[in-house]
Amino acid sequence: MDSKALYAKAQTLMPGGVNSPLRACRYVNSEPVFIENAKGAYLYDVEGRKYVDYVYSWGPQILGHQDPAVSAAAHAAIDHGSSYGAPCLGEVTLAEAITKLVPSMEMLRMVSSGTEATMSALRLARGCTGRKKFVKFIGNYHGHADAFLAAAGSAAATVPGTPGVPEEVTMHTLLAQYNDLDAVRAHFEACGDEIACVIVEPVAGNMGLVLPRDGFLQGLRDLCTKYGALLIFDEVITGFRVAPGGAQQRFGITPDLTTMGKIIGGGFPVGCYGGRREIMEHMAPVGGVFQAGTLSGNPVAMAAGLATLNRLAECDYDALEAKTKALTDELAAILASKGHPVCVQQIASAFTLYFTDQPVTDMASSAKADQKTFATYWRQMMDQGIYLAPAGFECAFTSFAHADEDFEKTIEAAKNVKF
Ligand code: PLP
User: Fold this and answer.
1) Do 3-63+315-416 and 68-312 come out as alike in CATH topology?
2) In ligand 1, which atom is closest to the CA atom of 113?
3) 60 in ligand 1 pocket by Cβ < 6 Å?
């Protein structure tokens, strides 16, 4: 069956034919291709077409697909059983590796997705402060737990309102524009002793990539400290992406709690949340805050995650960042020469090209980018074998598997786009 036939059938079986909304490609007025295989920097669809991948499973595959060490570790683990529901060595070794690389996470708890990580971290923050309210940023996405679906980014931004989320659940969610410290300060001045935490993507990745302004993260740190609220860095995207120790290492700011996912599972379903020991010990069975999971700490996922972190220790982050910058500079120049100036936001191996000539600093400015022009660009890049996220408000990722010739192919493809 080709992609068209598979998609027709999928739509009779799953809403929109997909298991996660953006995959349906509706925001670029298109249809998805179905993937059969992925290796290194490439995806192969069911019709045998090859694509240079810039999605990498929305972030986890920073080493490229089927990295030999990661695949070998997963195969070896599965030969010892796929799930125990009991403690195993892999949980300890991966937890130790993460806590060494991210020292603010003195203790952590493994879960199965980024969504679970953030919802658990919020519960923990509320449980240990005894407060209900929290601050989140418009256009930040923290997974699909109810409390976060207020002005969320990513695919959630495309759903008008969020039916199924009672306002009683989001009434404690206080909103601020990303990079707007004054708005956060105003919340604290209004009700600082009721705010359990501020949760932030330290580099926003779900309204497109948006960098934090100088002083923004430090300002959040200071406000949280002043008012006794916890600062949660949602590093589901930035963890092991923007630096080996995540955004907190790169920007030198220490959060109280951190959530991770994506890369730490090496392509398997993993998330984790962690922080200072005295905070984490509020979790059951030591403390009273409850959270559990049948597949948490799954041995195959732990093995793949550990192999990924071990491999990343040998990788040159600076070199990949420099190559990614050269790529985005070149793409921006090509698009500008075609009469479509773009605002480039890039850090490490993540970037977004916004079809706007205005600076993008928050959701309001991200929303001004021209999605129609992005859709034209996306379609023609796909047709030339360049696989980009099917929405203009997402990140593109480069990986350690990308070769110079992949970037050259991407640049050639961009040159051929006709608007
Ligand atoms: N937090 C951030 C910053 C994310 O980007 C995502 C997903 O993209 C999540 C949380 C949710 O993770 P998951 O999709 O694994 O539930």
Assistant:
1) no
2) 15
3) no
**Residue 140 Cβ contacting ligand 1 at under 6 Å:** no
Q: Which of 67, 180, 234, 406 is catalytic?
A: 234
Distance CA 415, CA 401 (A): 23
Q: How many residues does the chain have?
A: 419
The Cα-based distances of 104 to 222, 256, 273 in angstroms read: 16, 7, 11
Closest ligand 1 atom, residue 59 Cα: 8
Query: What interhelical angle do 181-191 and 216-227 show, nearest 10?
Result: 10
Q: What is the pLDDT of residues 260-292, one digit of tens each?
A: 999 999 999 999 999 999 999 999 999 999 999
Q: For residue 160, name the pLDDT band (cuts at 50, 70, 90).
A: low
The helix (run of H) or strand (run of E) holding residue 232 is strand 230-234
Residue boundaries of the structural domains of the chain:
3-63+315-416, 68-312
pLDDT digits (tens, 9 = 90+) for 293-352: 999 999 999 999 999 999 999 999 999 999 999 999 999 999 999 999 999 999 999 999
Does the beta carbon of 362 lie inside 6 Å of ligand 1? no
Whether 237 lines ligand 1, by a CB cut-off of 6 Å, is: yes
Catalytic residue list contains 354: no
CATH architecture classification, 3-63+315-416:
Alpha-Beta Complex (3.90)
Fold of 68-312: Aspartate Aminotransferase; domain 2 (3.40.640)
Known catalytic membership, residue 141: yes
The predicted model scores a pTM of: 0.97
Return the pLDDT at 152.
73
Q: Is 174 left (phi over 0), alpha (psi -120 to 50) or beta?
A: beta
pLDDT tens for residues 129-157?
Answer: 999 999 999 999 999 999 999 877 666 66
Ligand 1 atom at minimum distance from 271 CA: 15
> Out of 27, 42, 51, 141, which one is annotated catalytic?
141
Distance separating alpha carbons of residues 130 and 188, to the nearest angstrom: 16
